[in-house]
Design brief:
The protein is α+β, with helices and mostly antiparallel strands. The chain contains three helices and eight strands.
C-alpha cells in the first residue's frame, strides 16, 4: 500500500517540523490452558506482566474436543454451560457482579452485550456487532472483559498478576481447552 502524492507531502512536512510522533501499537497474545480439569470451578493464573504488557482486554473462549480434529471447525467455540467468571489483576477483581449465565435457559444477554461493546471500544466507533445473538451463541460464545476504562490507580505501578476464575453449571467436559 502506498500513500498518494498529496498524503506523502503532508507526511514529509510533518516530519520536517521535527515534532515527536506518537504511534500506538496493539498486540494480541494467546494463552492456552490445554486441558481443563473436569470440575465445576477453575482458577487459572495466566501470567505476570509489566505495566507495558498488561492486558487492556481479555477474551476467554472454550473449545471441547476440537484439537487435531479435521471434522471439527477449530475457529468455533463452545459455551460449556458457563455460569460466571472473574478477572483478577493483582487483587483487583473485574467481575460485573454474579452474572448467573445459563445458556440452556437463554440467560446470556450480558455476555452478548459485553461482546458487542468490545467492538465499539476497540475500534473507536459505533458499529453493529459482527455476529447476531444466535450466531454468537452457536459459534463464538466468547467472554470479553474490558477493564481498560475501569482501571484502578493501584495497577499503575509494579508488576501485574493476571488470573481468571470461572465456573460452570456442569463439570467442564473432558478434552476442553480454554
Amino acid at each position: 500500500m502506498r500513500a498518494s502524492d498529496q498524503n506523502r507531502l503532508l507526511i514529509l512536512n510533518l516530519i520536517n517540523t521535527d515534532k515527536a510522533l506518537t504511534l500506538t501499537f496493539r498486540t494480541w497474545t494467546l494463552y492456552e490452558y490445554p486441558k481443563l480439569p473436569t470440575t465445576l470451578k477453575h482458577n487459572w493464573t495466566v501470567k505476570t506482566s509489566s505495566q507495558l504488557e498488561k492486558p487492556r482486554y481479555v477474551m476467554l473462549g472454550f473449545q471441547t474436543n476440537r484439537q487435531n480434529k479435521k471434522n471439527r471447525n477449530a475457529s468455533h467455540f463452545d459455551h460449556v454451560a458457563l455460569r460466571d467468571f472473574e478477572l483478577y489483576l493483582n487483587s483487583q477483581c473485574y467481575s460485573y457482579g454474579n452474572l448467573n449465565l445459563n445458556v440452556t435457559n437463554n440467560q446470556f444477554a450480558l455476555l452478548y452485550d459485553m461482546y458487542s461493546r468490545f467492538q465499539t471500544a476497540y475500534y473507536g466507533k459505533e458499529a453493529e456487532p459482527l455476529l447476531y445473538k444466535k450466531d454468537f451463541l452457536n459459534y463464538e460464545p466468547l467472554v470479553v472483559i474490558d477493564y481498560c476504562s475501569k482501571q484502578n490507580e493501584l495497577l499503575k505501578t509494579g508488576p501485574v498478576d493476571v488470573r481468571l476464575e470461572f465456573e460452570s453449571h456442569q463439570k467442564f467436559p473432558a478434552e476442553t481447552t480454554a
